[in-house]
Specification:
Blueprint lengths: L1 E6 L4 E2 L5 E2 L6 H12 L3 E6 L10 E5 L3 H11 L5 E4 L6 E3 L18 E3 L3 H7 L5 E7 L4 H11 L4 E5 L8 E8 L2 E10 H12 L2
Helix pairs in contact: 1-5
């Protein structure tokens, strides 16, 4: 099976030195890519900026911005059978990037942000007979938002987790399919969760 995995954060630069991002370490996506490769699948991993070594026997594409990730994913997507989308893609980017460095002043600084392209939504629209597994990191009204995302993005499974999983080797999460919980994990290693997720692909 040909499997695409997305991982890590994206960075949206304000100027040459500052950017908007999040605390994603990429560990979950890298664990999924490693588990899929170990299971014998042909794996492409598209990852934002992370401090992790390339998993063995995995084709790795490193990107920075949400737009770069979108283009890399859409390039790989026609040739894959399943996708595991763990990346924490930024929802917004600066409307314009300042050349050089923004200098501080006593005046307030207002940033105009615009939406980035919806990578997972586009994957869902082009899904066909592929299996598509997504992740939802939610804080308030978490289950409702995760299930709305599950339906809107045309996913087969969605994994609901929390900001506490950032940079950790362990995680609490619930996996939903068709609006119901199919598996809950408590303080499980990301490697263990990844193996379980890869097992869904094989079914």
């Amino acid at each position: 099976m040909r499997v695409l995995v997305t991982a890590g954060p994206t960075r949206e630069y304000l100027d040459d030195v500052r950017f908007l991002s999040n605390a994603s370490s990429g560990k979950m996506g890298f664990a999924c890519a490693a588990a899929a490769a170990k299971a014998g699948h042909d794996v492409t991993l598209v990852t934002g900026p992370v401090a992790l070594p390339d998993p063995a026997r995995v084709r790795v594409v490193r990107v920075v911005s949400a737009d770069e990730m979108y283009r890399a994913v859409m390039k790989a997507y026609p040739g894959i059978d399943a996708a595991i989308a763990t990346a924490a893609v930024g929802d917004y980017r600066p409307a314009s990037r300042v050349a050089g460095k923004i200098k501080k002043s006593d005046a307030p600084l207002t940033l105009k942000l615009v939406r980035t392209r919806d990578i997972l939504g586009e994957m869902g629209r082009r899904k066909g007979d592929r299996m598509l597994i997504g992740f939802a990191l939610e804080v308030q009204d978490a289950v409702r938002h995760a299930l709305e995302k599950d339906a809107k993005k045309n996913l087969d499974y969605i994994v609901l987790n929390t900001p506490r999983t950032f940079a950790s080797d362990r995680m609490d999460c619930q996996v939903y399919r068709g609006g119901g919980v199919v598996r809950s994990f408590k303080s499980a290693t990301k490697a263990h969760v990844a193996r379980w997720i890869v097992g869904r692909l094989e079914r």
